[in-house]
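User: Batch of two.

Assistant: Item 1 of 2:
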Amino acid sequence: MKNITVKNTIAPVALIGLSLFSACEESWLDPKPLSFYTPENAYVDAEGMYSALTACERNSRHEYFGDAAPIITELIVTDVAVEGTTDKAGPAMNLDVSFLPDANLDNNDRNKVGYFWREGFKGIKYANVVISRIDDATYKDEAERNAVLGAAYFQRAYRYYKLVHQFGDIPYQDWEINAPKLDFYSYDRWSIMEKMKEELEFAYQWVPEVVDRGRTSKSACGVLLMKFSMSLGDFDRAIQVGNEIVAKHPLMKERFTTNKSKPNTNLMHDLHSVEAKLDMTNTEGLMYVVSYPEIEGSDRILLMRNATPYWAAGYILTPDGKKGTTILVANDLTGTNLDNNGLYGRGIGRLRPTNYLQYTIWTDKELNDMRGRFNRDSWKSPEDLYYNEPSLKSSGNEWYGKNLVKPANMAVSDSIRGWFSWPHYKLFVPDPLYSEKQGGQTPWYVYRSAEVYLMMAECYYWKNQLNEAATALNEVRTRAGADPLTAADVNIGAILDERARELYYEEFRHVELVRISYTYAKIGKPCEVFNNRVYKLDNFSGPGGTGSNVKQEGYNFYYDWVVAKNNFYNKGVVTAYAEYKISVHHVLWPVPADAISSNTRGVINQNIGYPGAENNIPPLTVPKEGTVNGPK
């Protein structure tokens, strides 16, 4: 691995201690710093301030990287996927059991609900340090100062956007806190979003467009501003910002990078390759988290481990009942068709796509879609892999070297984990430094111009301008080779289908479904995909209240949509350890019990449907002027 000097690192705040070995000095009681890096000498200029924000950038990367990456929790409670780990008790299948306030909510073998709570507020804390100390530093001009502040506003808003859609009303922190605090209160989510939108307007004005990869750019601020504007019903502002972004950042419509010369690839392989995410001529990428190949300290994304089938399992047998696959092949087979591990990665099937993602969204209009299941270069299934177990060859078994065939008697639990299709063009990440190819080091898209077009399409949908919505959708569809849609084709289902096709393992799908659900409930627009059902805010999480685990349909769009599209939840699908179940109130997640119980001098509300909600009080409102934790 290469060693590099990272220009912007986190300046540690040193502990101040007593020198215990200076008895001869008259000043031996004076505090001696263990490091010269203290807030007083680190946060003195723009570079020092940006160094503090690297903690936010690093933590954003962790949402996508590593085994059981947190984004998986965001995906498995939606229409596109479920938890696929069927060999143990604990993984999030029956949400009535696994999504409880006092359950283990931050564990690789369970879920990462607690991770988002903990790390969300940790990122807010880091951003607040910069915001609180912004005028303690010296800048070359006002523009530099405001660019730093805008980047900090973005990082804070990035966390709040997830938190208010995952947990609803939450504590609001807007200033550096330097002493223990046990009197937090929940704040109204709408007022939090109003404040974030205001700050993002500032960020969008001042943050520069051209920045180092992984840093906050003007367009990243614009995308988040669009999301908050849409959440608050300001669709015109979202469209205005979206048009400004795509004018500067057009979609990549021609093949690029060295991948264009590789056989059996297409533009989608180019766009989602490591090379594309490193290519500074890539106009489509708006925000990235970064991890660079062969750079010491970089993370492995482990995407193929998480999101491709467990084809190496012992239950993948030949039709005549013999062990069919091996992970590592002989040297002379490396890179050949028999190298399942090298060509597709060594998956364990944590993230199991639904029939909706694998089949439903791919219609006759997508027959030529490069992103879809009809393109056998882009999508793969176990039938594309080969029986490569050496004992088959040595015994002369006729199945050696042939494509896998699904065992006729494969158990439900085994098929969930080991037999499904996946978007190979997006999920394959070279992993050259490890024998088991699980997904190596790569930057990863957070925002792309493609999503901007899809958000604009949704804004036009809310405004009942369906011709304009179809035009925006078709920018993304025709680039991929799909047939264009007409105004008559546009509804919320068409928009969500397109987001699933384009943004799998990029978007935080649960967050976006909840945002749409709140919009329906707030503006009262009839939902055409559910017989013009009208949703309301006053029964958003269901009528049952504390501990009811309500199952009634129709209290929020999220529940109706997930149950309608996901072929696992509430369909009687049972594994050896659990049945897949979801309830109305799972639209919002449980606030971890320890966050509430340790807050002894305040009240953090629990969401309706979970134990503890009976203790709720009305949430506070973020003030229009001044701060909550800092200067009034």
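Item 2 of 2:
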Amino acid sequence: MKPITEILEQNASQWPNDVALVEINPQELEARHTTWKEYALIESSPVEAFRSEMTWAEFDEKANRFANFLLTRHVKRGDKVAILLMNCLEWLPIYFGVLRAGAMAVPLNYRYTAEEIRYCLDLSDASALVFGPEFTGRVEDIADRIPKVSLRLYAGEDCPSFAESYNALVSYCSARRPSIELALDDDAAIYFSSGTTGFPKAIILTHRCLAQSAEMEQKHHGQTRDDVFLCIPPLYHTGAKMHWFGSFIAGGRAVLLRGVKPEWILSAVSQERCTIVWLLVPWAQDILDAIDSGAVRLDDYRLSQWRLMHIGAQPVPPALIQRWLKVFPRHDYDTNYGLSESTGPGCVHLGVGNVDRVGAIGIPGYRWETKIVDGSRAPVAAGEVGELAVRGPGVMRGYYKDEAATAAVLDADGWLYTGDMAVVRDGFIYLVDRKKDVIITGGENLYPVQIEDFLRAHPAIKDVAVIGLPDPRLGEIAAAIVEVKPGAALDEAGVEDFCKALPRYKRPRKVIFAPVPRNPTGKIEKPKLRKIYCGESLVAQQVGIAR
């Protein structure tokens, strides 16, 4: 095992002229009223902003230049450098440059408000910030309230007065690797929790964590230099980037797609000859719905090389995967479970050979251990529901500047307590629900994920979230927020009739027809739903017919 910065140097040495990164921005085509198919027929593309690429040598060189620039500005080992960029070709060279300087990368969620950006910069003690043009207004709003961020670099044209130009400064720095030695146990990055339960926590990951994710991903999915990984989710999150690490360690390229429309995803797979795609549940569902409606014709795309679709970041409805494998029967499939605290996905995974176990999150990943425990953290009896705990080389060092929160989830033996309720059946782990999302109704425990999975099998339901609402007699009742597919019709009676196959105590007592909000990593924003519905009269929220 070695730091990922050394893997980049190795790739640049072995395959300097091979393409490492591709960025595709389909919105540039749409702005010019050009379709992707029309673009593919043009030998000399007039839309330069649509597609750009970078070789391994260029990737390595750019990382070195940024590392050397940081060193000239007295950024030292352990300093924090925040990255606030949309997915773009420069994102990963900047990230690797921070690591090569011995500093810690601090990726920021591009959906953060100005105040959330300020909060995370302050919490992480960031002394430098690299941001793109999409964030100029937000950074300007807080520029006079982030005094610790003394270095502010703007990656774009027309640099604002409160920042310095990344492009102008970094391009003149040395392309030689700086003489900073990195050890696996050195701190490498701070990632923020998704914030679905309140303010995000700052998660410290080491170089060992990052190296483990690369080796584990390649071990799980057998990536080779010929594989092409389609990266759609945001790079600030541990999910997609850590999955690409499996291709990265083998010298395989990444395609960064800026957009999630089904036709864009399939066009990228087709035109770039992608072999591996990691999807979130809503995107997979949108692709299938587009195929079913005729909006997308599979015959229009070259997809025979696509070998693996894997999915994670949230509970995966078995009905969705069964439906996917009917449409794409030759695909290998894997479910990946993880947390930012475990360096993203893979501490538990289904495994491509276990497709008959769809519905389980799987078995311990490469170099990982798991156990199921009760409230006192003692192992539960076989077949009983308890909290899932994991241990392995990808466990975080802890929460930055928060010893109490660290002690609450990480014990002295290295076990990370996930807050997810799970059960083991025949050696496979099945996720039941989040510990904090369990609904207690009349003394019975309800696990919303089980009800959500059941309801998603309804042909008219696009998405669903189940939350607990206060009830004076039962304590809580289950309410289903149902998002209906476009063009479909469904009323409360239809939902109730469908739910007759559930035990009576599991049936939702309220049905609300409304959009289901999800964060950028695909997780349902249940705190937002509780805020909307728990304090208001449901009468005004309910709709008899949703179309």
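The chain has 17 helices and 28 strands.
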